[in-house]
Every structure is written in C-alpha cells, then in structure tokens.
C-alpha cells in the first residue's frame, strides 16, 4: 500500500465527512430545501468557498498520480503537462474514458486489486477497467453515500430509512463488475434494506432482465398488501422500460405511496427500445404514480467514483426549467468545446470532463464522451446517442 | 435572389405536407410528363441539360451564386468546398459525356428515340429500343448532393417524371438545381418535384410509392430494406447501400516531387465534400520502400491538409460531429503517447478541421469523416486486402497511386477482390458520368428494352 496515497485518501474521507457533518448541523437550522448543494448551486463552477482547498487537493493528487502511475505519466508527458508546470486543476491532463480499455490506469499493485468495475456495453467490446481495493472502495462509498442521500430527498414525514428499496438490477453477486450495482448495494446496506431488494437477474447471454413477478410483488401489486411506506426504486433507463412495457402490455398500474421516489440512470445500450427522457418519466408517473419531481436522474460511470444528480434542489435559477446535474463538492465538472479543447461558455454545448478527487487510486481527471450543455455550476445532459453511430459506420470503430 | 414557389421544398418550413398533397403532386407530374416530356428527343434533352450544367460553371450564374452564398449555412460545406464540388460535378455534364453514357449503356445514342441496330444487331437482324419508367421516385440520403443531382439528370435524360424526396435538412442543393432546370425549360421543370421530410413517414411515403414505377434510394441497409418492404412487387427498386472507399499508394512512386504530388492528390480526396461521400477515402494505405516512409507520408498529408484549410476550409460542424472527432483524437493521443512507433497523430490547432492518424496496423478503420484520415502502412497489395477484409463486398472506390506498368495488374486484383471502381488517387470523389454506381449499369437498371427481330 502506498503510504502517500493512503494518507491522501484518509484526508479526503475526513473532508467529505466534515462537509456532511457541517451540513447536518446547518440543515437543522435552515429551511428544508437547503443543503450541501447551496455551496455550489449559486456559484460558477470554479469559484466558491472550496475553490482554494479543492485546487490544492487536486494538484496534490495530480502530483501523486503522475509519480506513481506510469501509464498516466506518459500521457501527461506527451502533452508536456507535468506537476512542475500545472498550477490549476483545470490544466491537469484528463484521460479519455477509452484509455481505461487499453491501459492499466491504476495505482494499485496487481495483488491489491480486489474488485474491477467494467464499463457497461455490448459484450464483444473490450470494456473499461477501473480497479479497486478495499481502501479505494472505502473512498468510493464515502463519496457516493452522502451525495446520494443529499439528492434523494424525502419529504418531512419520512427519512430515507423509512423508504422501501427496490433495485431493478441483478444483485451484486451476479454482476460483480458493475459499478452501478455496487453503488446500489452500498445504498441498500446504508438503508438496511433486505437483499431481496434486487429484482433483476442476468440472462444466459449476460443481458440484464427483470424478475417481473418479484418486481410487481415488491411494488405492492398485491391486493392483500397493506404496505404504505413510500418506495425508492433504483434502476437503469432500460430496466424501467422493461418494467413499464410489461405493465402496459398487461394493463397494470400501481399507485405507489406518496413520497415514493425513482432514480434512473444511464442510456439504453440497445437493451430495450429507446425513448426520450420526458416520455420515460411520463410513463413512470402514469404506471407507478411517482410524480416528476420525485424522479431523479443520475449520471455516473465505472471510471468515476462520484456521481452527479439532476435533483431539483440544485437548480441554479428558477427561470430555467430543465433540471441540472451537479457533482458533489469534491468533484468538479467542465464542459469542454470539442473544437478548441477549452471550456465552453454558459449555455453552450460540449463534452463533459470531470475532475473527481475520489478517484484517488486511478486518474482523477476524466474526459467523457458525453455531450452536455453548461448550466451554472452543473450541466444539462445530452448524452452519447449520436456519437455511437457516426453516420451509420459504427461497425468497426475503435 | 428569391426562388419562386415551384416545388414542395419551396414551402415555408412550417408548412405541413399531407398524403393528399403528395398524391396530387404525383398525378400532376405524370400528366406533365405526358404533355411535355414523353415525346422529347434525347438530343434536345441533352442540349438543355448541358446548357444548364454549363450555366452552373459560370461565376455570374444566379443559381450558382445562391448555392455558394447560402450553401455554407444550409449544408455545412464552406463556399470553397461547394464551389469545387459543383465545378467537378457540372463539368462532367457535357454533350460528349452524355453521348458516351448513352453509347455505353445502350450501344447507340438514339436508343431512347427509335428502334436502332448496332453493328452486331444488324448481323443478327435485330433492332431494339428502350423505354424508361413513366414515374421515378428518388429517396435521397443526403450527405452530399451528387448522387441526388445525378439521379435527377438521369431521370430527365430517360424522360421520366420524377419525385425527389430528400432527407430532412438536405433539399437545399437539389432544390436550387431543380429551379435552374425550371428556368432553362419550364416544361421540363414541371416534370420534377422536390420535397423534404424525415424518412419513415408512412402516410406520405405510401402516397408517394403508390404510383411509382421505379424507386431509387440511397441509405443504410436497414433504410433500404424498409423502403423495399413498402413497394408493390411490380415496382422496380434500385437500392444503393452504404459503401466505403480507401486509397493505395505504392512505395515505388514516393520519390522527390512525385511524392509531393501524390500527397496533394490524397488531400484532394480527403477535402472533397469533406470526405462525406461513399467514394471518399477512410484510409490511405501506403507501402514502404520509397524515399518517403508511410509515417512521413502521413506527416506530409497533415501539412497539406493544414494548407488546404487556409484556402478551402472545412466549415463548422454540429457539436455531435465535432465531439466524435475530439473523442476519436483522444484515443489516438493515448496510443501515440504509449506506442509512438506504431501510432502517431496530427491535428489542426484549436479546431477539429483536419486530423491525420498514422497506424502501423493494417486493419481497415472507419473514419469519423469530416477530414479525419487514417494513413496505414502495408507491405504490399495482398497485405492491404487482408487488412481490408472486414469491408470486403462493401467497397466502392479504391484510389490508387502506383507505377503505370503495374496499374493494370493491381486494378485486376482489386476488381477480383470486389472493388467496383478503381481510379487515380485524387479523383475518388469525381467519377465520370459513365460511372457504374456500385458496379451496376448507370442507366441500364432504369430502362426496359424492346427487341425487334426483323
């Protein structure tokens, strides 16, 4: 175990914990709609009370990753961007997510790697590999849990621990390389929900499907059931499509208790028919009785350790009606012009780049392939659908 | 210049097309053809078409001016790219070209007008005449205008009424061309309709297909299959699926000034229509052994593309297309940092205007286009064909720069392998009027023959 990295990881966990603790105290004295998000919601992306601290931490982490990760170091050297010349976190070289397919972008020695998260996608493609150890998973979980709890807000009558959890994915033992399912499992353990919360399964070809009987039973589509606690349903967009299509075919409808929430994430990856977000959300409202304000979208990927949410609380301005994704204060996003490689202006479209301090043991600066519109300190997601098919010639892309 | 409302594509964007409008337009086209086109002589049609084409080559031609003025905003191509593409296209619509085409396709330039006999026909006491379909429908995919304009020209030459259905956002140049025909000969223009809608509109398309004798379409295999499934058995269908193209440069030719010229010709093919056509190269394969190595060829090509950008800029791209290039560059930047001996890349600064990727690996690679070209080293032709095996059967054009004494042998090997067009590098996006699209007859698939045994 590298002592420099361990020390950094421990400090980061303390920082996250102190942010969360400060918020709990603050929340008690504030109106219900306030939260950690207030720290960033009114600020442009790189200004704010954490700017100085974030920058110092980012530069320190860059120096460590440059020093200990030769695969990353080569990329930085090719760009002539080394710790000696980089003075701001925005200058730190970002690696494209595709590099996780080709290189071992990890600071963990082979015998330290207990877990590897793969990018989702079709099986014949070479997946991304994000290696983890017990220590790096601790950071991953320390990052995901508070920001999840911050974003999946319940109303005042209930705490998150009162919600009944349903995960529309296979359980972790069936998909050990899914970072998403690891995240759901972490949430499940945090909430103290039973293992039966997972109602998905993997088919023979590895595709994710649902155990529809289990899903419907969990949703309380049972006249005898007298459960009235609100539910929290987590799933991918395509798993919701599977569930909703099944319900539409059978003309089923459930009215989940008030205060129920839905969190959906990810694209369709050819695993179901695709539909626009607004249509998916309308169908969720129609079939499950969960209103739009209780549907939260998540943006995350196996190459990151922090996630962004489009929770309504992060709205930088009530004038804009689109909901805006925000990362937690220990991760920052830039929207990068594909033409110039520089950050775009407010309201313009570019590629999402994330600097995630919680990626201590891999690479903190990640260049994604996803397009988004810059909105305040966050972004409005456009996604990757168009990129996946460059003019019908996607057969043999790298 | 304001274009009058002659065609459905002239309607304001908010106008909604209905199946009734489409059906009525088809009826009108057929009626007009009967009155104005069916009895026209081929020679008079050639005269009109070559006059229109010649007009487009003149700097003061109002249609050309309109295309160059509004084209960049409407099509994404820069004014210079449009000008060169239009010059190449219209420069090949001369009377001689039309005659060569008719002789190639029908053995005699008068076949469309009267029963005629070739020398062989005379020996066998046989004459023949060809009839074209009364009503042709073109479903145009619309990356670049040439295929659509060619379809219109062939349709007029064979005296068909024509309905050109363009993909949404791509009717601009076909529409201006149609206006230029209308201006030259209003009766001819009245046998032509141009409209635009997003493909897959079943109501409009069934109205359109109902009266069609022949449907030509370009697009993905899925799109073609979907169209074909909607057509009655009696309707002739000519589908042109996606094809890819590449270049081959022999090492022997890469010396001194010859090498520079070959690099410039490769750049011509990358720049033409921003590489968006099926005839544009994704990869230039380069053989080592010359004074210029494949890596150096790639670097020279990068220099040349940079120079071209100054005189014939690529133009702006939508964010999705620029992001595709930026993302693809990211892959090669990482690979180049780790294995510079097998991967290198050169990129335009502060833009996605052009990109050259050198790879020692000979496997064919689809480009994301818009002037993003791969240069790959191959030991010889056999190695190249092995590298391109994944696209065998999907190849349109191979542009070659090889020693003259070996060209025929190389072309034969490429033909046996399955390439349907082999041309000099630099001419890939500039096929002659007589070009057999995807290896099929240029006009022969449209017509029906009548033999008269005397």
Description:
The complex is a heterodimer of chains A (398) and B (454). Chain A has eleven helices and 14 strands. By secondary structure, chain A is an alpha/beta fold. Chain A has a domain at 1-110 and 315-388: Luciferase, Domain 3 (Luciferase, domain 3), CATH 2.30.38. In chain A, the strands form four sheets. In chain A, strands 1, 11, 12, 13 and 14 form a five-stranded mixed β-sheet that branches. In chain A, strands 4-7-8-9-10 form a five-stranded mixed β-sheet. In chain A, strands 2-3 form a two-stranded antiparallel ribbon. In chain A, a hairpin with an 8-residue loop joins strand 9 (295-299) and strand 10 (308-309). Chain A is globular, with a radius of gyration of 21 Å. In chain A, 46% of the residues are buried. The model of chain A is unreliable at 30-49, 313-320 and 386-398 (pLDDT under 50). In chain B, strand 2, helix 7 (146-157) and strand 3 (161-166) form a beta-alpha-beta unit. A seven-stranded mixed β-sheet of chain B has the order 9-10-11-8-7-12-13, sandwiched between helices. In chain B, strands 4-3-2-5-6 form a five-stranded parallel β-sheet, with helices on both faces. A two-stranded antiparallel sheet of chain B has the order 1-14. By secondary structure, chain B is an alpha/beta fold. In chain B, helix 3 packs antiparallel against helix 8 and helix 12 crosses helix 13 (294-311). The interface between A and B is medium-sized, with 35 and 35 residues.
Low-confidence runs of chain B: none
Strand content of chain B: 15-25%
Could you say how many structural domains of chain B there are in total?
A: 2
Total number of helical segments of chain B? 16
Subunit organisation of the chains: heterodimer
